[in-house]
Design goal:
about 300 residues; mainly alpha; 2 domains; 11 helices; globular; transmembrane helix; cell membrane
Length: about 300
Amino acid sequence: MSEFLQLMSQHPWLFITLSFIFAATIGSFLNVVIHRMPVMMKREWQQECNAYIEEYHASSLDKSALKKLTAPIDNYPERYNLIAPGSACPKCGNKIKPWQNIPVLGWIMLKGQCANCKTSISARYPVVEALTGLLVAVLAWHFGPNIQFALAALLTFILIALTFIDLDEMLLPDQLTLPLVWLGLLVNLPGTFTDLQSAIIGAVAGYLSLWSVFWLFKLLTGKEGMGYGDFKLMAVFGAWLGWQFLPVIILLSSLVGAIVGIAMILAKRLSREKPIPFGPYIAAAGWIALVYGQQIIDWYLGNML
């Protein structure tokens, strides 16, 4: 292992290239997570609701009403998780061959269509793969072959999954955000990205910062301005990077979110009343802070003082 790390240190472009290829392959799996995790969560919620209905309300409902309430909410196979069933065309059921699953290139070779029925395959699949590879390549260039790179890459993988799930479902699953908070604290036991005290304060301050905004907005308007998943995602970055980076993340995410929201309203792709997910902007701002946060803080302080 030490010889491999030494080789990668001596040939940084080889390390960056291998990091891109490996991460793009992980990006292919992230596409599965992005699509299937919400389905799995909805099924779990339905099972909990069904158990409640059958225990407390079954006697007050006729069979047809009970059957309607407990009917499946999707048309996917009964066994449906991150592993099974294997990837297949949703229209014709044709199994996707290994070579067709090559990140980015597989989609290009298929010309964006199912090999069997020619149904279009969303361009988002290669976009996620390429984005994952590109971001991890940047991390490889920034950190080099060390433990910081490995942990930052893991964080990036999960942030990409969270971003696209939130875009699709307005949902940041606890199954992803909460483990990241605890992992961030464990990661910083030896001070990998920040000292443990800053990480603990950061996790608390990250959560409370948006929680306070949420309740202030609700008291003033009677509406909920954001979801609890956003609080937890901010706690993630507090735990990983420390409380010192939270102002940068909040400012960057608010700025980008405002620009994108206004642009979409002006382009008439979004109504003023329709909510937009804030998680992707927090994730993007947090990732920028992970790589360039200290430079941003130094630049700001240097221009202010």
